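For reproducibility, we list the full input for the D-xylitol-5-phosphate complex.
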Amino acid sequence: MAKVAPSILAADFAKLGCEIECVSSADYLHFDVMDGNFVPNISFGFPVLESVRKITDMPLDVHLMIDSPSRYVSEFAKAGGDIVTFHVEAESSDKIHKAINDLHKLGKRAGLSVKPATPAEVILPYIDSLDIILVMTVEPGYGGQKFINEMLPKISNVRRIIDSRKVMCELEVDGGINFETAKLCVNAGADILVAGSDVFRAKNKDEYISKLHQLVR
Ligand code: DX5
Ligand code: ZN
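The corresponding predicted structure, in tokenized form, follows.
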């Protein structure tokens, strides 16, 4: 069964509490942090995460699209993140190792994300200590973009790497996920589907999530 992580970036923030309640059958709640530097857009940060933490028991899957993420991972973990994923392109190698360690010391899961143009192999030096690898299937920065089909071989490649190394690491995909692209991603080896626009646009969000749940490799 595929796991589903609705991205609240696509929610109506004026009624965020209700929106989160509507997707409570999902596995994780995806929380997109953007700083206006690593990506052009600015979204939300600590105060919103702290408020969301208070109203839900769902595991919070924080996706940091920010520069120098190692400076902030612990703070996001303490503010309520259960999984904290940051971008390999945004940090130096020694700081990536340190950030992963910092998260583990706090009892949190650590994830590394790759932009569409970044080859999958860049995660190899970190793979033994990672809990999540997040393959971006759109250019990070905005919800509602079209899925990049060329990412499918990369997803398969990461799947092969995870399986051959026999590591306990989940493969997450993010961006442009709808029912059709979700199937392609799961067939290519994805474990977790992040979906924003399509989930929050759905009339019956529970039904939509359950449809995604039924996808199997
Ligand atoms: C893009 C974000 C995604 C995005 C997904 O930078 O990381 O999580 O919100 O939204 P949709 O499903 O609309 O592409
Ligand atoms: Zn995301």
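The chain is about 35% helix and 20% strand. The pocket of zinc ion (ligand 2) is lined by residues 7, 30, 32, 63, 174, 194 (CB under 6 Å). Both points were considered when choosing residues for closer inspection.
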